């Protein structure tokens, strides 16, 4: 009972503060104007959020544009089905579907909107996106001194939509953007930093929980009873208003390719832009509406549409939905032409920018159909609406209405979220060692915000479950710590195929860890992209981004720990090799008759200089009562380790010193071979044993290396957790564009 009272008391205080700030103890009157089925899918989650807080907001809904046209599905009905009261319906579309009709439609909307806005008197108008109808809304509101909140500003696509979107940005007083790049574009356009909210796309709040619902009944309803999941295509293509003739030809080629591909296909009618009438004629000319493999529809409710694309074998066309929302499911997408050329995309999107032949589109279908990609969260993390509602509550109606522009020099990235605290772009980093499993939240600057450690289980099933559990807990904690997780990077021992995210062969330290797909279970669970690489490679990546290799074109990292690993950076890029076996530096042979190595060979660096090798030698000395010296002791149940050998050497044990010198010499000979083979500009020794070997290694280089490489510097890494930082760097440095 006490908790309930406390909750409502806090709610009452918050309400009072907002109302006092906005004057007259009244609620914030918000007008949401929606023009078509696409913008409603983004605005509806916000509208539901506003409706759920009647103590703070009054909601007015204005419907106009293609919502009210029968040929485009009378989509205003879905707004009514969602139980929203439509305050005003405005018929603003002049039919003709050409350039002149678009201009006339804007003019008609400008004539009708003033009466509506005078009657509603909203405190703020929410406008979405880049449609010509939205431009009329923003123009009317700006001229009538009504504050404008623009959703999805700052993005880049590739058509006239860009010009309209940026024009609305200049009219709007507040901005809600979806990606970091969009935020930077708004800042570059001189918008006020304090009035920009990086929230993510509102539709993602629904998308990220959508895939678990019953979907087969929806698939059967729209595509037929005989269709299976992942065995159909969704096609959605719109005219490009800056090149209508070419876009119609491209649509014709797309339909020809889909007919040839011979898979069941759901084709949605295009939007109302200039050229849409001609595209519908092409559909009818080819008999698409009566073809047994096609289902042509004017509109699919958004809840059902996302189920259809989530379980499709492929989506094709040029809709922004393909490059934005569909990435949340990892569904393959073929993006045709230039309409979305500037959009940020996940790796599930294959661009066919010059879609000028049927064969090229058909080839893309063969490449993409049926694949499954990692889920992408480029456009949102499922928490956009709470951020937007807080942002709305923070608006002070007593502030001057006149916009302020922040002209160059533009301040460094300081746009703020609703709590005026910048969310930290971060990665989840996983380090799978021989003993411990570690998960960390790592910021863009390489700061470990929080770290979790558990002993690593011995079986595959226990291990994978623990990884998932720790990552889920860390991702939840990241929200509380104001960190936005961009993806997951995994560092693990053994040979790794980073392209597929698969551990091919593990070291003997980690059992049941061969042919293990790490990417899929993590991506499916967290809805995040996942990268996997060998721990030695991750150490090199960590040095390249955060350590002493930063800015260097060529360097080598050697890890000295339980085993010996390494990574090679050449011309700023990590070298993996033809079979992902490059930089297995621990298995460079430095003696033909040396001790046995865990790899099956003998005389490897790892057989001399690894923690395992030192432990082996320490046990031998202990068994012969030659390890302990004055000042040392080993408890009865304590395992003898490399630590005891190092301690004995420091206390003057000559045999321990000799073993360490031999180990350091073996490592030094390996470094000499690296200098002669790769000729890097720097060698970085990393790991717990590096400081014990550095001087011996430098002595060996002076004695054994060619004079031309003796000046190459060898240093000890100053990074505390190179494996975790390297895993994080895979996420933080990743770029996702692919071109066909």
Automatic annotation (TrEMBL):
Catalytic center residues: 535
UniProt subunit comment: Homodimer. Homotetramer. Homohexamer. The hexameric form exhibits both enzyme activities, whereas the dimeric form only catalyzes the phosphorylation of N-acyl-D-mannosamine.
Organism in which the protein naturally occurs: Zalophus californianus (California sealion)
Gene from which the chain derives: GNE
GO biological process: UDP-N-acetylglucosamine metabolic process
Protein name according to UniProt: Bifunctional UDP-N-acetylglucosamine 2-epimerase/N-acetylmannosamine kinase
PANTHER family: BIFUNCTIONAL UDP-N-ACETYLGLUCOSAMINE 2-EPIMERASE_N-ACETYLMANNOSAMINE KINASE, ROK (REPRESSOR, ORF, KINASE) FAMILY
Binding site for an N-acyl-D-mannosamine: 495, 507, 535, 584, 587, 606
Keyword Ligase on entry: no
